[in-house]
Write a structure and sequence with these properties.
This protein is α/β, with parallel strands linked by helices. Helix content is 34%, strand content 20%. It has eleven helices and 15 strands. It has helices spanning 17-34, 49-62, 68-77, 88-98, 115-125, 143-154, 172-183, 213-238, 247-260, 389-399, 408-423, and strands spanning 8-12, 40-44, 78-82, 104-108, 132-135, 162-164, 196-204, 269-274, 292-297, 309-314, 321-328, 346-352, 355-364, 372-381, 428-431. Helix 6 (143-154) runs antiparallel to helix 11.
Length: 458
């Protein structure tokens, strides 16, 4: 049965940073590529329609995405409702502005603390009837708050109408992980504990928190990228083949992975903070929030039992790059007497800033001696026609396609994994900007393992 298309788009926080940086460019892309021909209604506390139109133009100029024809269509579709999130009259005005629209798509581009009054007023005003809702991350701060937030959203919307957005799932390289897993038969026989020695994920950022100190000091790296982005990547890497071709088939398998991850223990985690972080505006002078984390995860499944999964993420590191490295086991016997023990074969998935897949192997060095060297068989994807993540995800939500959105049980399963180290946080280790984090990060590695540092983009 084909899902009903949403017939209006409403975004709360229309004058905010997220709308400026992501939503306006995404809407312009949808108008250009998919003829997104429906009313677009901004809701905010200040300004008017002219102000909103001027902000839309400035947004597209800033994103280097200004097409005057597309902009004219976007401005013609824009409408505006001024009011407060806790004022029911604002929502009656919104219902009037919606006119004949029976299936609006509401986007909450606002702080999570405002979700409850908005959702309650959407229901009381009739704006939630027949509607869908997009909820921005972070979806909660821990397991208890995530459960509470799920309960709040369910007061007005069914699970089939809730779209918990994580833009990372909309990225083309992340989607390529899923495709590569199940489009290539050669991978399946070795994609298991008998052949895989470890899985390592590094999300490195060379930049610091900049002007986001106040936000980041309330979140930290574990909440900001591990609980959502990186656990979702693990679910795609480790999932079983979906049974069927529906969105739920994939999401069912992702949930099984997340539900099988052991909750973290303090000894599985090393937290770091770069030197100078506490002097950033908005950061507490005695802050113990982590700007770096290294951790070891375990999956209690038949396929992955005993395979350590290492995750490392942080700011002010040497490069900006995200990589997945799947290291394969060494051959059972040493046939050639190498001068140094070689690294194992590996598969490397480069997710940012460029996209590539490489197979690490060994080949004989030229010469008479039977000595080898590490080589990589390398395939790079040339970027071109990919849809930006927010454009992809808003378009999917309008069509009712939940494939790339987090489900209630998966969100709660992910929080269960990290909740113990949020309650009993390991100590903070200081590290120098431009390093790979504190030396203590090696403590999470099993004997004989080492971190594989991504290289800068060439």
């Amino acid at each position: 049965m084909r899902a009903v298309l949403s017939d209006a788009f409403v975004f709360f926080g229309a004058t905010g940073d997220l709308a400026f940086k992501q939503i306006f460019p995404a809407l312009a892309g949808l108008i250009r590529d998919e003829d997104f021909d429906l009313p677009i209604i901004g809701v905010a506390r200040s300004g008017d329609l002219d102000t909103l139109r001027a902000r839309a133009r400035a947004s597209l100029q800033a994103s280097a995405n200004l097409d005057e024809v597309v902009l004219a269509k976007l401005l013609a579709r824009l409408r505006y409702v001024k009011g407060s999130d806790d004022d029911l009259d604002t929502f009656h005005a919104l219902r009037t502005e919606l006119g004949e629209a029976a299936h609006p798509l509401h986007y909450l581009a606002i702080p999570p603390s405002l979700f409850a009054p908005v959702i309650d007023n959407l229901k009381r005003s009739g704006c939630a009837r027949g509607a869908r809702i997009i909820v921005e991350k972070p979806f909660g701060r821990d397991l208890a708050s995530a459960r509470s937030l799920n309960s709040t959203v369910h007061r007005a919307f069914s699970e089939a109408s809730i779209f918990r957005i994580d833009h990372y799932l909309g990225k083309e390289p992340v989607q390529n992980l899923l495709y590569f897993r199940f489009a290539n038969s050669f991978l399946e026989p070795i994609w298991r504990r008998e052949y895989v020695a470890s899985i390592q994920i590094t999300m490195a950022e060379a930049f610091d928190v900049a002007d986001r100190g106040a936000f980041f000091d309330q979140a930290g790296t574990i909440r900001d990228v591990v609980q959502n982005h990186l656990l979702q990547v693990i679910s795609l890497l480790a999932m079983e083949a979906p049974s069927g071709r529906t969105p739920e088939a994939v999401r069912n398998q992702q949930f099984k992975v997340l539900d099988s991850l052991r909750p973290l223990r303090p000894e599985d985690v090393v937290r770091g903070q770069y030197r100078g972080y506490r002097s950033v505006k908005g950061v507490a002078p005695d802050s113990t929030v982590e700007t770096f984390v290294a951790l070891r995860l375990h999956l209690d499944t038949w396929r992955w039992g005993g395979v350590p999964i290492y995750v490392r993420a942080g700011k002010a590191l040497p490069v900006t790059a995200t990589e997945v490295l799947v290291e394969l086991r060494q051959p059972p016997e040493v046939v050639f007497q190498e001068i140094e023990p070689p690294d194992g074969n590996h598969l490397r998935f480069r997710l940012t800033p460029d996209m590539s897949i490489s197979l690490g192997a060994r080949a004989k060095r030229p010469g008479e001696a039977m000595l080898g060297e590490a080589v990589e068989l390398f395939a790079r994807h040339q970027s071109g026609g990919e849809r930006p993540p927010y454009q992809r995800l808003i378009g999917d939500a309008q069509r009712g396609d939940q494939s790339l959105f987090a489900r209630e049980d998966s969100v709660e399963a992910a929080w269960r994994v990290i909740d113990p180290v949020l309650r009993t946080a390991p100590p903070i280790h200081e590290y120098v900007r431009g390093s790979w984090g504190p030396a203590a990060a090696a403590a999470v590695l099993a004997q004989g393992d080492h971190w594989h540092d991504p290289e800068a983009a060439s």
